[in-house]
Structure formats: structure tokens, C-alpha cells
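WARN retry 2 of 3 for item q-0093 after timeout on previous attempt; input resubmitted unchanged.
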Amino acid sequence: MIEIKNITKEYTFTKALDNVSLLVEKGQIHSLLGPNGSGKTTLIKSILGLTKPNSGEILINEKSILNSWDYRKDIGYMAQVAMYPENLTGRELLEMVTEIRQQSPVKKEELIELLKFKNELDKPLKTLSEGNKQKVNATMSLMFDQAILFLDEPTAGLDMVTSRELKKFLLKEKQLGKTIIFSSHVLYDIEELSDNIIILLEGKLIFTGNKEKLYKESSKSELEDAIATLVELSRRVQND
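OK item q-0093 returned
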């Protein structure tokens, strides 16, 4: 379980997070949504320990992460844009990350088979298509048996078949008790995977709850309309 208590993060010209409090339940898939500049990346970086909030507290399993680093071994992170040494092969990259993390990649072979890129493993990354680079990225991020998974646009660049297989994998991980937080612009992914939806706007938390709660509060019956309506209503309130 991740508990976020009143965190605020200010930069020189903006307040990226404004007194955000949030409870991320264990064993669920949470979608993190919001317009560009809403604070999603800052929130993820704060939980990962890549940036330090000006105030507030973040707890994982009831323990503060402040001035701590060992909790990160239980977190997997899949970045939207993966920048790796392009002269390395996919296999070399996976081996390098395994050596750095000093953990057993217990799900590596399963993911290689699932995502169908075994024949691409020994090719330099610079020669791979964007879809195959994304497969390497997904495998690198998910191959360790970690309790918390962060995924930023996980299906971007994947074909429909591979995207479906990756989503099946995530649903299976949820059944094993994993806590999964993902951001996506693909509404079908959000609708299919989400147990809980988190929406940020201009650094403020404007919604957290399941799809039924979202439809009720927005008075809309379609996900895209519900999200857009709630964002627009919140903008009006913030600007009044």
C-alpha cells in the first residue's frame, strides 16, 4: 500500500503538486490521468525517490520513504521513452540491468516468449523497430518479481496482439497481489484494466475512485466524456 500525505512540490515558476493526499491500495490496477503539466510525472518521481517534495510524506507499507532507498528494490518502472545505449543488444541490456539490480529476473523468459521477440534479442537496439524496443523496455521493467509496478504508456508502439498479451500479463500480476500504477492515453486500456482512476489537474488531486463513481460524479456514461467533463468542471472551480 502507498500512502501519500499532503505532498507539495514547488519549482521556480510553478507548483507541480499542491497538497496531494492519496491512498493507493495493494493488489489493484490504478490509472493515473491528467492533462499535460498536471503533475503526474512529478508524483511518480516523488514515489520513486527521484525528486523530493517540499512538504508532506510518502509511506510504502506504513514506512516513510524519506531518506530511504532500499524500498526501490520492490519497484519496477517502465518509462514511456526508453533511452539506452544503442550499440547494446537487447540481451546485453537485460543482462546489464540484472547485474545492476542484483535480483533474479524470474519472469524474463516468460516475457520474451509472451511478447514474441526472441529473434530480436541479439540485434543492436539501434536496428530495432520502435515496437521491438518497447518489448525490450517492457521485459526489462517487468522481469523481476516486484510488488509495485509503475508503467508510463506501456502499450505505446505495440501491435494489437502484443498489446493484448501485455495486458493479460498485467492482469495476472494483479491477481498475484501486485500494485500497478499506469498512465495512458489509450482509453480502452484504462477502461479494461483500471480498478481505480486517479486524476490530477494543475497539481491538485481532483478525483480518485472506480469508473462507476466517475460516471456518477460527471453525469456521463462514456469514459472519455466523463474524464473531460470532470476536468473542465474542476478547471472552472479552480479559476473562480
